[in-house]
Design goal:
EF-hand domain-containing protein 1; 23% helix; PH-domain like; elongated; alpha+beta; six-stranded antiparallel beta sheet
Length: 640
């Protein structure tokens, strides 16, 4: 071995010595692997394999250093250097949290399953906070399984936050890409890690199993040996023997339901059932003879037969616990067949004889199932709304387009132009209303009342029409059943309540007296005695003469007051100088009267306002029974 020629030479500043014989300049490794983890190791050899000099202290020197107080010797101790930084991919390398979970998936197009349960394993990688979801492969599942979500960081909300291991626990739901996973359990390493980090784990849950997968795990259906029942004997004994029942299906409780009639046939030869429809002429239904074709009818199904495809496969004894037999068809009892409840109300004579011999049932009477018409519903009018008369408002309930209520035409023809007039005073606490007088007009043809107040000069009250023609309800009557005032309610001293205003009858005209004498049975003794006492107190020559004179005086005063009111209110039409001359042209005999047609023709040509309420009242007062109108007083109201 050649020795180092520069060994032992002093290393002075500015001078360096190289070993020219050295050919190896490699460095020793400072990183190594221990138990699968990368760790830092201190090199024992330098460049080129030269052994490094290590300062090794003796045991005595170590004890001396341990017993010395460095604070007294060297002052305050220096802070210990920080530990070396260990990256996450080194500290958590190959450390993975595992959770057992499942999610529910709807199956909308399958008749055998409505949903399926898919079990998955959720892996959380601590080194980079990534996650992956793996579904274990199930044989013959028909679905692509394996890696559902590849390893990546998964977002837990719309803000951009990602799932962390602090967000995972047993017994919670997490939503990933719109699909909700239920975490039920975790492995031992995951449980120890989470508990070491101060997370309290929820109790584990039981993994939910897929119902369709469990159904497929059931053993294959076993076949049993058929019974020794001789079907040939039954066929030869009961061939062409059929029990006939008459039944109804009442479906009136459902919307658009009805009660229909059917005939049920029970074939004794093979215990099959057939249901026939009963059609009548012009019933509006398609002429299908059978509601249910002839077949064996199950009564009680087995538990595993609920999902049996009856529409494509024939049902057998393995799916049915009990079949319908002849003893289940009894007259007077309901019977449910394929979801419809039939009520058997009768059978034919052969069926009665069969039940009597076979089952000992001799009493099978026919049951009357004809439904009686319900009693007619009494139509009640709604409460009166307060607008118009009760009869007019009631027409809205009788027809979509209301019509005018029917009138008593015979009564209107008999009592046409028959008017009862009364003189009344207003009961009022106001002193100005004590001297006011009103004329009540009762029209016998329509039972309506109108009130007119004769104008009084310088009274401060404008007279005229106080109430138009209308029916007046008595105060004690109800709004739904009103009672109107009649002729028997008007007599001297009677108090009439007209829409909250009270009037007292003071006097009557001569026509009222004659009407009361001719219809004495209609009036009460109090009303008749009030008339007699009234004329007896006056002591006049007679009621007829007095009424006539009072009537004439009242009419004259009323006419004069009305003419004066018209002259004040209709000033624009008061300068018709040619009104009198026009009427005199038609009145060639100078009688002072013209017929109604001529009268209105002249008024229309001169633009006289005949539609005004005061003008109508003036025309009425100027009219006579012969159908003519006196134009003298009418001209006075429209001339200078």
């Amino acid at each position: 071995m050649v020795s180092n020629p520069v060994h032992g030479l002093p290393l002075l500043p500015g001078a360096s010595f190289k070993d020219s014989t050295k050919t190896s300049f490699h460095r020793c490794q400072t990183l190594g692997y221990r138990n699968g983890y990368a760790v830092i190791q201190r090199p024992t050899f330098g460049i080129g394999g030269d052994r490094l000099q290590v300062n090794q202290l003796s045991q005595a020197e170590l004890e001396e250093l341990a017993n010395k107080a460095p604070i007294l010797t060297y002052g305050q101790p220096r802070q210990a250097p920080r530990t070396d930084f260990v990256p996450a991919h080194v500290a958590f390398d190959k450390k993975v949290l595992k959770f057992d979970a499942y999610f529910r998936e709807d199956v909308p197009i399958s008749t055998e399953e409505h949903y399926r349960i898919r079990q998955v394993n959720i892996y959380y990688y601590l080194e980079d906070d990534s996650m992956s979801i793996i579904e274990p492969i199930v044989e013959n599942s028909g679905m692509p399984q394996g890696k559902l979500i590849k390893r990546q960081r998964l977002a837990k909300n719309d803000v951009g936050d990602h799932y962390h291991w602090k967000d995972l626990n047993r017994g919670i739901n997490i939503t990933i890409y719109g699909r909700t996973f239920r975490i039920v359990d975790c492995d031992r390493f995951t449980q120890v890690f989470l508990e070491s980090q101060g997370i309290e784990l929820n109790p584990p849950e039981k993994m939910v199993l897929d119902p369709y997968t469990e159904l497929r795990k059931q053993p294959v259906r076993k076949y049993v040996t058929p019974s020794d029942f001789d079907q040939l004997k039954q066929f030869l004994t009961y061939d062409k023997q059929v029990l006939r029942f008459y039944a109804i299906w009442d479906d009136t409780d459902s919307m658009f339901g009805e009660c229909r009639t059917y005939i049920i046939h029970y074939y004794l030869m093979d215990d099959t059932v057939e249901i026939r429809e009963v059609h009548v002429r012009n019933d509006g239904r398609d002429p299908f003879p059978l509601l249910m074709n002839r077949q064996h009818m199950p009564k009680v199904l087995a538990e595993n037969a609920k999902n049996f495809p009856q529409c494509v496969l024939e049902i057998s004894d393995q799916e049915v616990l009990e079949w319908y037999t002849a003893k289940d068809f009894i007259v007077g009892k309901p019977l449910t067949i394929l979801g419809r409840t039939f009520f058997i109300y009768d059978c034919d004579p052969f069926t009665r004889q069969y039940y009597k011999e076979k089952f000992g049932i001799s009493d099978l009477p026919r049951i009357d199932v004809s439904k009686q018409e319900p009693p007619p519903v009494k139509q009640e009018l709604p409460p009166y709304n307060g607008y118009g008369l009760v009869e007019d408002s009631a027409q809205n309930c009788f027809a979509l387009i209301p019509k005018a209520p029917k009138k008593d035409v015979i009564k209107m023809l008999i009592n046409d132009n028959k008017v009862l007039r009364y003189l009344a005073a207003l009961e009022s606490p106001i002193p100005e209303d004590k001297d006011r007088r009103f004329i009540f007009s009762y029209f016998l043809a329509t039972d309506m009342i109108s009130i007119f107040e004769p104008p009084v000069r310088n009274s401060g009250i404008i007279g005229g029409k106080y109430l138009g023609r209308t029916k007046v309800v008595k105060p004690l009557s109800t709004a739904d059943n009103p009672v109107y005032y009649g002729p028997d309610d008007f007599f001297i001293g009677a108090v009439i309540d007209v829409f909250g205003h009270r009037f007292t009858i003071l006097d009557i005209d001569e026509y009222v007296v004659k009407y009361m004498e001719s219809n004495a049975a209609q009036y009460s003794p109090e009303a008749l005695s009030s008339i007699q006492n009234h004329f007896r107190k006056q002591g006049a020559p007679g009621p007829e003469l007095e009424n006539k004179q009072a009537k004439e005086d009242a009419s004259v005063q009323e006419l004069e007051a009305l003419i004066e009111t018209i002259q004040k209110q209709l000033k624009d039409h008061s300068c018709k100088d040619n009104i009198r001359e026009t009427f005199q042209v038609y009145d060639k005999e100078a009688t002072g009267y013209v017929d109604k047609e001529t009268f209105f023709k002249v008024c229309e040509s001169l633009h006289v306002p005949v539609d005004d309420s005061l003008t109508k009242e003036l025309i009425r007062m100027c009219s006579h029974d012969e159908g003519k109108i006196s134009y003298y007083n009418f001209v006075r109201a429209f001339s200078n």
